[in-house]
Design brief:
This protein has about 575 residues and is an alpha/beta fold. It folds into three domains: about 5-80, Gyrase A, domain 2, CATH 3.30.1360; about 110-360, HUPs (Rossmann fold, 3-Layer(aba) Sandwich), CATH 3.40.50; about 380-560, Isoleucyl-tRNA Synthetase, Domain 1, CATH 1.10.730. The chain is about 55% helix and about 10% strand. It is built from 22 helices and 13 strands. The strands form four sheets. Strands 5-4-9-10 form a four-stranded parallel sheet, with helices on both faces. The two termini are about 35 Å apart. The relative contact order is 0.10.
């Protein structure tokens, strides 16, 4: 695909001798200022001239590339206007060659990216709070793969720790009262709440729970068998949710997987002289980094969440030789990961690995009427939420199109798509407000709106007997403003995907897709696509096909499936 920015940069290099000039080229927010712009203010100091003068001199000397329609100087900016025909020709040829891979690239070839996402706790409800890590991580996984990276999706399950000592103790005492095979998560939660209450009343019970966990760490047969049963039953429950969301992992190695790998972490930190005694426990002090100590070993010799994360870093570096190891968790864990990444520097790893550790934090999910709270009883189970979304979507579809075939399948795509899009529409660091009325609106900046516009492209394409070839298109038939604006937006898709990966921000793609849908709506309303003049129809139909490809591919990167009709 022609890279207009690089074409301009090559011509600029010939007349400026500045090697990194491509980095200085911007895309103006004001489209009246051209498609690409070189601000000459940064060159003024080096060249000892006024920016306006530099811009004028470059304009006089530069060989104008074929794809550039005109060059203008405005207040120290050198503005380049790409010929609309160049945009259309490039986009159409690329769409024809790549089809659903339009926008993809191989920039990640040979690079391994580990993405740690979802990571629910075994034997606890998979609730709406787990949604964000699951869908943000899954989107990043798909985005990196689309750019040619070897992405490894890891579900680092919370399947270890003192809470399992508590569950084991509760099961020992009251297991026969609960049918964990029939309804595992709910029954195990009841046991956990009950034993937790008892621990608050009786310190000796809490001590028994801690000892259970120590036994589990030491491989006690009874504790291990019970833990395995809790884990297996929980995973079956979780899988139903992953199937609904179409989320996949390459590894489900949770915290327990590292139980025999933590001794090495302790040894390495000890050998590096970084492990210190503190009130009977062992810590790595991080005062020089203005952080509290990182607890590595508790007073009874059992390990911590931090120890397991450090063991995971060692394992992933050796197993996957990662360029990046990305952790998708809430912003409440920012300090934890700062500590872990700092302590990882003392494990004797190559600097490549410690530099590749990245925390991708996100905000909380809030209900329209405030924050969720277990105490207040307004925690929403994720499976219940997804089924509710499907049910509500079904009602809307029934009203809008009662004769639609496959209504159940369409409702599933619309309902789940609405939930995912709502999560990925804003910068991940913002708290997400969960509001059914907004999410399922077919007219707002929502998942159903995107799907509706995709369906509209399908209905246009169904009216033609065959799709014209990109080489047969008379591009001069697309000279109106709505067509040109739409083509320019589609052209930027690959750059948008790269930006989403660089910033680990799927919302960049979400916003782009809304822009494509809105511009297609303008194009659709201002131009009669199916018309009597063949060359005009072919050009407009092919542009509609390009929109169809981009909407489906982009939505797929977010984890949203598109219905063909709705």
């Amino acid at each position: 695909m022609l890279d207009f920015k690089n074409i301009i940069a090559d011509k600029l290099k010939d007349v400026t001798d500045i090697e990194n000039i491509a980095e200085l080229i911007e895309i103006p927010t004001n489209k009246q200022m051209g498609d690409y712009s070189l601000p000459c203010f940064k060159l003024a100091k080096e060249m000892k001239k006024a920016p306006q003068m530099i811009a004028n001199e470059i304009k006089e000397k530069i060989e104008v590339p074929d794809v550039v329609e005109k060059i203008e100087v405005v207040n120290g900016y050198l503005n380049f206007y790409i010929a609309p025909k160049a945009y259309a020709k490039t986009v159409f040829e690329e769409i024809e060659n790549k089809k659903e891979n339009y926008g993809s690239s191989n920039i990640g070839e040979g690079k391994n990216i580990v993405i740690d996402y979802s990571s629910p706790n075994i034997a606890k409800p998979f609730h709406i709070g787990h949604l964000r890590s699951t869908v943000i991580g899954s989107a990043l996984y798909k985005i990196y793969k689309f750019l040619g990276y070897n992405a490894i999706g890891v579900n680092h399950l919370g399947d270890y720790g003192t809470q399992f000592g508590k569950l084991i103790e509760g099961y020992k005492r009251w297991g026969e009262e609960y049918d964990i095979d029939k309804n595992p998560i709910d029954e195990l939660t009841k046991i956990y709440i009950r034993i937790n209450d008892l621990c608050k009343q009786d310190e000796s019970v809490l001590e028994s729970c801690r000892n259970n966990f120590k036994k589990l760490e030491d491989g006690d047969e009874y504790c291990t068998k019970l833990w395995e049963k809790f884990r297996e039953l929980s995973l079956k429950e979780f899988q139903r949710i992953y199937d609904l969301l179409d989320v996949h992992f390459d590894s489900s190695n949770g915290e327990a997987f590292y139980s025999d790998k933590m001794g090495e972490v302790v040894e390495l930190l000890d050998k590096a002289g970084k492990l210190e005694e503190s009130e009977g426990a062992r810590v790595v002090k991080l005062e020089s980094e203005d952080m509290p100590p990182c607890l590595v070993e508790k007073t009874n010799g059992s390990t911590t969440y931090a120890t397991r994360d450090l063991a995971a870093i060692l394992y992933r570096a050796r197993t996957y030789d990662f360029d990046k190891d990305i952790y998708v968790t809430s912003y409440e864990q920012i300090l934890h990961f700062k500590q872990i990444f700092e302590v990882a520097k003392y494990l004797g790893l190559d600097e490549k690995y410690t530099k590749g550790l990245i925390h991708v934090p996100f905000g909380m999910v809030q209900l329209k009427n405030g924050k969720m709270s277990t105490r207040e009883g307004n925690i929403i189970k994720l499976e219940d939420l997804l089924n509710e979304a499907i049910s509500r979507a079904a009602k809307v579809i029934e009203e809008k199109n009662p004769n639609l075939e496959d209504k159940e399948e369409v409702a599933k795509k619309v309902g789940i798509g609405a939930v995912i899009f709502n999560d990925l529409y804003n910068s991940r660091i913002k708290d997400e407000i969960f509001d059914w009325d907004t999410m399922l609106n077919f007219n707002g900046e929502t998942g159903p709106y995107l799907q509706y516009m995709f369906v509209r492209t399908n209905s246009v394409l169904e009216k033609v007997s065959s799709l014209p070839s990109a080489h047969e298109i008379d591009i001069s038939a697309l000279e109106d403003e709505a067509s040109i604006s739409l083509i320019k937006t589609i052209y930027s898709f690959n750059d948008i995907v790269k930006q989403a990966a660089e910033k680990n921000e799927p919302y960049i793609i979400s916003r782009f897709l809304i822009e494509v849908a809105q511009k297609f709506s303008s194009f659709y309303n201002e131009n009669k696509i199916i018309c009597e003049e063949e060359k005009i129809q072919n050009a407009r139909v092919y542009l509609t096909y390009a929109v169809n490809i981009v909407l489906k591919t982009g939505a797929g990167l977010l984890g949203i499936k598109m219905p063909n009709k709705m």
